[in-house]
Amino acid sequence: ARLSMPEVRRYLIGKQCDVKSEQELINYMGSRPEDFPPRDVTDLIWDLAMTEGSSRLLSELVHKIVLWRSSEFAVAQLVEVACALANAGVFEAAAFDELAD
User: Fold this and answer.
1) What pLDDT, on a 0 to 100 scale, did the predictor assign at position 29?
2) Whole-number Å distance between alpha carbons of 91 and 93
C-alpha cells in the first residue's frame, strides 16, 4: 500500500517506489533527488501546506530535502517554501534562518 495522502501520491506517479510511511517517502526522496526536481519539491510542500495534519512531514521535507539540496533551488523557490511553511503554521526558526541564507 502506498502512503494514503493524495497530495503525496500524485508526485509518485511514474516512479518505481512503494512508500508506506512518511519516513519512507523522505528516504526515497533523499536517495533519488533526480526524481524530485526542486519545482516538484516546492509544489509538494505547497500541497502539504494546505493539508491538515501535515506539519511533521513538512518539517521533515524542509530539514532533510530542501536544506540539504538548497543550492539546487532558485531563490524564488526557497521563498515559496518559507511562505508555504508560514501558511501551514509551521514555524521553525532554524529552517527559516537556513532558507534566508
Assistant:
1) 94
2) 6
Q: Smallest Cα–Cα separation from 5: which of 24, 30, 32, 33?
A: 24
**Grid coordinates standing for 83?**
511562505
Q: Which residue has the higher pLDDT, 52 or 34?
A: 34
Q: Which residues of 8-43 are buried (b: 16+ CB within 10 A; e: fewer)?
A: beebbeeeeeebeebeebbebbeeeeeebebeebbb
The answer to whether the beta carbons of residues 95 and 63 sit under 8 Å apart is yes
Cell of 72: 539546487
Can you tell me the distance from the alpha carbon of 99 to that of 71, in angstroms, rounded to the nearest whole number?
10
